[in-house]
Amino acid sequence: MAIAKAERLMNLALCLLGTRRPLSKRELRESIEAYLEASSDDSFNRMFERDKDDLRELGLVIETVENLDGEVGYLARRDSNRLPPITLDAEEAAALGLAAKVWQQARLAGAASGALQKLRAAGLPEDVDPYEAHGALEPHIPVHEAAFEPLMLACRDRRPVVFDYRKATAAHPESRQVEPWALECWRGHWYLAGWDRDRGAERVFRLSRITGRVRTRAGRFTAEVPDVVTVRETVAGWAGEIADRSALIRLRTGAGYPLRAKAVSVRELDDGWDELEIPYGHGLDAWLVEFGPDVVVLEPAELRADVVDRLRAVAKG
Fold it and tell me: Is the CB of residue 298 less than 8 Å from the CB of residue 246?
């Protein structure tokens, strides 16, 4: 399905770029095999409108022109779709080289390397080594989850997905229908931000808790996609990175080093425990549960209740 759509989009783009006059829907349908195979006019019209919107999202400037007879035609002028020459200095080339190296552990390594080769063909000076300027830097973003690539493609294509997800407090996974917005890496873990159709609200999912295969679904998004800044704030909040108050906990001596690293203050007690003041934001209760019997929440009361509820849910299985 993905290959067929990509071929259809390419054929449509070539038709629009190759014509000297606007082409009507009828002419475009007769020129592209996939459109000829459409089962009805309505089916073709829906397919064509989706393809036209997709090409515009990819950056192709498509003009709509109405002739003297009132017939609407489409074309993409070459001068409107021509990119200026690419010029990069040594620092910019080095930054791109580092960006390409980030993905060497993932299946995107080939795409990153290919993009760098295309930049060379487009004007990147041959005497500039994009890796040499900062050769001591070895940036890596670990991508071990099988769900990463299908979710990345679903975010790019704005396709709804279905997957089985196991919450931290649940013994068994449950099916989730999600409109994926963006992937973010926080503290070595990948998170997906999107719209949960079943709950009618935005949610964040940790990729390591997705079980089984990610399946894409046909159709458009039903919820508005926020801008990138909002998505990142959502991911940060649901990952427990945004704190607006403090919590007081007891932590067993010698345990919970990630909590100690975030502590605002630490007070040693005499019974093998320490008292910590830590930032309190959304998601802290789920994080504290991971430390099991090494953590006791003192205050606030609502955080203590949330942690107890999560532990009881785990105990029940």
Answer: no
Q: Which of 243, 231, 253 is nearest to 281 (CA)?
A: 243
Asked whether 170 and 286 are in contact (CB, 8 A), the reply is no
147: number of Cβ within 10 Å = 23
Q: What is the DSSP string of 49-102?
A: HHHHHHHHHTT---EEEE-TTS-EEEE--TTTSPPPPP---HHHHHHHHHHHHH
The total number of residues shown for the chain amounts to 317
CA nearest neighbour of 238 among 205, 199, 278: 205
Q: What is the pTM of this model?
A: 0.49
Give, in order, the Cα–Cα distances in Å from 206 to each of 203, 238, 266.
10, 10, 30
- What is residue 39's predicted lDDT score, i.e. its pLDDT? 87
pLDDT 10s digits, 117-167: 655 555 555 555 554 544 444 555 566 788 888 998 898 888 999 999 988
Average pLDDT over residues 262-278: 91
